[in-house]
Amino acid sequence: MFVAGNFLQAVAGLLDFVLTLYVWVIVGRAVISWVNADPYNPIVRMLCNLTDPVLDRLRQMLPMSFGGIDMSPIAAIIIVWFLRAFLVTSLYDLARTVN
Fold it and tell me: For residues 72 and 59, is the Cβ–Cβ distance under 8 A?
C-alpha cells in the first residue's frame, strides 16, 4: 500500500510545483501589461495564452476593474493560493494515511 501513498505524495508535489509556477506566470503577465510589450513576441504570446482563459473568465464573473486597474490577476493568485493550501495539503495528508 506504500506505493499508493508515494504516488499521492508525488502528485501533491507536482501539483504544488505547477500551481506555484502558474502564480509566477500570472505575475509575469501582470508586469508585461504595465509596459508596452511587443504583442508578437513569443514570450508575451505564451504568457497571454496561458493566462487569458483564467483571467477572461474572472473578468466576466466579477467586475475587477477599479479606476482602470485590472484586479483579475490578484483574484487569480488568491484562487491559486487557496487551491495550493487546500488540494496539496489534502493530498499530502491522504498520502500519509495510505502509508
Answer: yes
* Cell numbers representing residue 4 in the block: 499508493
From the list 30, 70, 75, the residue with the least C-alpha distance to 50 is: 30
CA distance 88 to 48: 26
Only one residue has cell 502528485, namely 11
| Dihedral angle computed from the Cα positions of residues 41, 64, 20 and 32, in that order, rounded to the nearest 10 degrees | 20
pLDDT of residue 89: 94
Query: In this predicted model, what pLDDT tens digit does every residue of 19-28 receive, in sequence order?
Result: 999 999 999 9
Contacts of residue 7, Cβ cutoff 8 Å, sequence gap at least 6: 95
pTM: 0.87
Range of the domain at 36: 2-98
Q: Number of folded domains in the chain?
A: 1
Residues shown for the chain: 99
